[in-house]
Amino acid sequence: MQGAHLIQLFHRLRALDEAVFYWLFVKTAGLRKTRLVFWFSRSGDGPYYALFALLAVIATVEGSWLFVQRLLIAFAVEIPLFIGLKHVLKRARPDRPAFQAAITPADEFSFPSGHSTAAFLFAILVVTSFPIWSSAVYLWAVLVAMSRIVLGVHYPSDVIAGAILGTGIGMLFIGLIQ
After folding, report:
1. What is the dihedral of CA 61, 75, 147, 164, to 10 degrees?
2. Which active-site residues does the annotation give?
3. Can you list the alpha helix ranges (DSSP code H) found in 32-155?
4. What are the boundaries of each domain within the chain?
């Protein structure tokens, strides 16, 4: 009987996650009329991480080489891990009759959010190497994650799982690469 209760709890949590998503999507319609939410989502794309790392090295910021090493190795693990999880778990993206996401996602599955995973991985690596950027980079990571909900391509649990996954991977490589 305990397994049945666990399954029932899972279904209730999923229904709550979906209800919160659709409520947020409706409430944030005005944000989709601005370009800002689209910019935050795009800022979580891969090339911008490489650009930041390159600028840190060019500017000869102290700790930039260690940051680049961690970044390269951590992303080499993160990318196949979140893609693999998506293909194993196969959670469909938000979809209802008369619902239209504001952007076309890169793939068909939503859990975990790759943008959120990468943003929080990047944030913890930046904070460890360049602590002065702590507040700004974590605010940016949260806004990247939230933009994915606002644009209609991820449920709240997708971005929360991505934030946890990215932070965990980052912490692992901070400990391993000194």
Report:
1. -100
2. 115, 154
3. 36-43, 46-58, 64-89, 114-129, 134-150
4. 2-176
The candidate with the shortest Cα–Cα distance to 101, out of 149, 170, 64, is: 149
Q: How far apart are CA 115 and CA 126, in angstroms?
A: 16
| CA–CA separation, 171 and 66 (whole Å) | 14
User: Tens digit of pLDDT for each residue in 39-76?
Assistant: 999 888 888 888 887 887 777 777 778 888 888 899 99
Q: From CA 59, how far away is CA 55, in angstroms rounded?
A: 6
The radius of gyration computed from the CA coordinates of the chain, to the nearest angstrom, equals: 17
Fold held by 2-176: Vanadium-containing Chloroperoxidase; domain 2 (1.10.606)
Rounded Cα–Cα distance for residues 177 and 48 (Å): 23
Tokens representing residue 44 in the block = 């979580």
Give 121's contacts (C-beta < 8 A, 6+ positions apart). 74, 75, 78, 166, 167, 169, 170
Q: Which tokens hold the place of 113?
A: 């959010």
Q: Residue 29's pLDDT is what?
A: 87
